[in-house]
């Protein structure tokens, strides 16, 4: 940074150069303005809410599509999307912030070397002249990772591209400090930094979207193996519900006006939009049934059961054949 001595003259900066105090002040004001603008955007509750909703929708849409549903059927609310996207939105920025702190430490170490060895040191000159090439390679590596198509590379690829962009900006900064180099005008530097900041934000957004897509895909892929871990649901109904799904058992009890129909072998998939979305215990990608019932359906009672050892297996008598024919349900 440029400082002024007691006579108002420009004093050398840490790299041994002398800058124009007015230009340095303008550049500093522009950088401060950029930082304030970025912080204002990040602190905007409306922007954060919109991002959370979008990422939650990406995750839900991907999972619903692979399970065999249309996401619109679920009728999710803004609150549902937000609760499902917090991890996607905040995990990657935290990772990026940690990487930024690591870069600060490396930059401070490199600055100390420049001060000790001077700007004419061969290593300092070489890095300042050719770091842009390394930045280009990092950016290309990020694209290659994204195109590889693996879950991890699909998510990290955009972040590596962002690292390449920031490294390119750093390379330009080092190059402008070489002896005889012409630095950027304050306005040009502000445009450059703003453009890189915008591209970096797009990269983070892109990476978080990919993360939400991967998360939804993995949830759908593992759904069959994890159906048994979902909350068990038993339904008592005054009228037959005609539930036909693999693994669902139908029982009857009572007679006449007190006749009740009992369904077991169901698991809770989602509770959203005033509806329960239920699937059967024997759900499979080849034949999977998702049942939607209103949470306040008249004459219907939902019981959420944790029956690890099958204690309630014989709690209700099976329906007679003629009763089963009337319900259309399979055991």
What does this structure look like?
- The protein is an alpha+beta fold and 331 residues long.
- The chain folds into two domains: 219 residues, no CATH class; 102 residues, no CATH class.
- The protein is 57% helix and 14% strand.
- The chain has nine helices and eight strands.
- Strands 3, 4, 5, 6, 7 and 8 form a six-stranded antiparallel beta sheet that branches.
- The longest helix is centred in the N-terminal third of the chain and has 40 residues.
- The protein starts with a strand and ends with a helix.
- The N terminus and C terminus are likely disordered.
Radius of gyration over all CA atoms, rounded: 31 Å
- Measured by DSSP, the beta-strand proportion falls in 5-15%
Number of strands: 8
What's the number of domains?
2
Order of helices and strands: EEHHHHHHHHEEEEEEH
Low-confidence stretches: 1-19, 324-331
* Helical proportion, percent range: 55-70%
- Mind summarizing the main beta sheet? 6 strands, antiparallel
Shape: rod-shaped
What is the residue-mean pLDDT, rounded to a whole number? 75
> How many H/I helical runs?
9
| N-C termini distance | 79 Å
- Alpha-beta content class: alpha+beta
